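Appendix C reproduces, verbatim, an entry submitted by the partner laboratory led by Prof. M.T., so that reviewers can inspect both the input and the predicted structure.
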Amino acid sequence: MGNRPSQPPPPSPTFSEPWRKMQWGDKDRDLQYVKAYQPHNEEAQVRILLHGPVGAGKSSFINSVNNVMQGRMTDAALVDAASAGHSFTQKYTTYKIQKGNPRTFYPFIFNDIMGLEKGGRGGVRAEDIKLAMNGHVRDGYKFNPISTLSKEDQGYNSCPTVDDKVHVLVCVIPADAVSLLSDEVVGKMMDIRVAASDMGIPQVAILTEIDKAYPEVNKSIKNVYHSKLLKTKMEEFSSKLGIPMNRIFPVKNYSSEISLDDNTDSLILCALRQMIDFGEDFRNRM
């Protein structure tokens, strides 16, 4: 019997060189940049609105940012580990990040919003997100999946200030859910994206749960920009929504951890820094 021909080794799931530059081990630089950020107008603030499908990790991302800025685990935005396909966040909620003492805050704020769902009887309505971008939704308004906020509702802000308006729109989606998005949800996201573009609002996207979706990233978070599958998934998401690759940021939210990790922090800070910069540029044009 002749020797069987040797089988070629399976293709590697990672690139030998990262496809995006990332300065690992330099977390303190980005952290100090964010901590030192001050808007051109000292009394102004950058408002960052997060939206996306149910269970995308919007609230978890806000908690993760708060963790990084506080240097410890926090729970500013409540999350639900078993929402059964429905949005845990029901109200338009504003979150400030504490700076120093409990009465001072960083000049950027987050708005969490009800998740997008299929059908017309669940999830936030795209029209309500458009109203929020224009500053017409008051903090604490409870969304009604059946009807859009009207001028007669108590939750309607008829005279929004520049601070009430959204300065950065962030689309949040789990990395392993990109291919599973229904055409209906994608259509809603595109509708929101077009409206934001018409208003001139800068847009970015964050892909969450990268460690759960890709074994090589779970093995080491530093493999994030070596992962072939993650790069392909980001390209797919960019194609679906039209968001440029350089405005899509993969992150790992804190969920089961009880202590912080510098590399996880670095990815969160990289995304946050871009949001702040884009928001500042937009505010200066308003």
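The helical segments are 27-36, 58-70, 126-133, 183-199, 210-213, 215-219, 228-241, 262-285. Additional entries are available on request from the coordinating office.
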